[in-house]
Amino acid sequence: MSVLDRLKGDEEPKIPVHYFYGGLIGLADGQITRAQIEAAYEIGTTGADAVEMDFLITTYNNIVADPFASVGNAQIRQALQDIDLKVKQQRYLNAVHAIFMLTESDEFNTITKAQAQAWLTLAAL
Q: In 5, 19, 76, 84, which residue has its Cα 20 to 30 A from 102's Cα atom?
């Protein structure tokens, strides 16, 4: 099975887009575990399901950058880094949400896994 195909409704059981997105937000905030999401939506821990979950989580976790390394004051630099990281994380989660919405939509039901991965990779920069 594939998480993306189940979000699109091409495979059963269908994963409700908004509930799954909420689960990812909870995971990002440390309130929900990956195992809880997998159990709630019967997501496999091997195969395409696992690969897609790994990609979502790994890409999110790799959102790091230090464009403020040259700022002299450590407290100001840390505050800027924290804000920048939150903005990037939110941009990534918004991209995840948009992709899930588009895959569920009849009008845009042609988004491929490669397109989704490319979009999420760009959103994580």
A: 84
pLDDT digits (tens, 9 = 90+) for 42-80: 998 889 899 999 988 888 877 765 667 777 888 888 888
The burial of 34, by beta-carbon neighbours within 10 Å (0-12 exposed, 13-18 middle, 19 or more buried), is given as: middle
DSSP 71-93: -S-HHHHHHHHHHHHHHHHHHHH
- As a dihedral over the C-alpha atoms of residue 60, residue 66, residue 68, residue 69, rounded to 10 degrees, the angle is 160
How far is it, in rounded angstroms, from Cα 45 to Cα 27?
A: 16
pTM over 0.85, yes/no: no
Span 82-95, pLDDT tens digits? 888 888 888 888 88
Amino acid of residue 117: Q
Reference 62, options 81, 88, 43, 98; nearest CA is 88
